[in-house]
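FORM 12-B: Structure-to-Sequence Request
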């Protein structure tokens, strides 16, 4: 894949597929944040990918530590790995958290809704796994809108190929040393 435009098309196709295909490599990106206690990383579900706007969206519970982390430092990184293509996609983003809309909430399955709410809130100690009571709570349903500042790809090929696409230059792209 030695063509920048094709590399950019491929990465966006992967992100877009990740929003609908449960088995797609981009379905579950790693979100890395820097909070008051240092670096944190966790897997989320990719919900939207907007190539034209240069944004992606993910959902979370308002009571999670990632909300505190992002309030402390809204710059974060999303990481996708496609083992079959041997392709890593790293998105440097600025994340804004907002309450989910009624339409977004209604589009979720009942099982997915149960992930937003519950007692006690995420991260709190419990004496055993069965001592958490999931409870769908639309007031805790939060959308993370991630505005992409930069995308880097690294393809493990012979030779390795690495490219960077920056919002600052309209995502024109440039090859960089692997």
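FORM 12-B RESPONSE
SEQUENCE OUT:
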């Amino acid at each position: 894949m030695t063509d920048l435009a094709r590399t950019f098309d491929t990465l966006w196709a992967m992100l877009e597929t990740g929003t609908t295909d449960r088995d797609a490599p981009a379905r579950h990106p790693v979100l890395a944040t820097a909070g008051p206690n240092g670096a944190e990383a966790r897997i989320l579900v990719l919900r939207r990918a907007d190539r034209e706007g240069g944004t992606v969206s993910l959902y979370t519970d308002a009571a999670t530590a990632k909300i505190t982390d992002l309030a402390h430092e809204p710059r974060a990184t999303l990481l996708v790995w496609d083992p079959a293509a041997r392709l890593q996609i790293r998105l440097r983003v600025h994340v804004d958290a907002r309450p989910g809309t009624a339409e977004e909430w209604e589009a979720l399955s009942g099982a997915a809704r149960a992930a937003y709410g519950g007692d006690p809130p995420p991260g709190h100690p419990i004496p055993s796994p069965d001592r958490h009571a999931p409870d769908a709570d639309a007031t805790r349903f939060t959308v993370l809108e991630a505005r992409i500042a930069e995308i880097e790809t690294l393809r493990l090929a012979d030779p390795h190929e690495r490219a960077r696409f920056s919002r600052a230059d309209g995502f024109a792209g440039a090859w960089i040393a692997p």
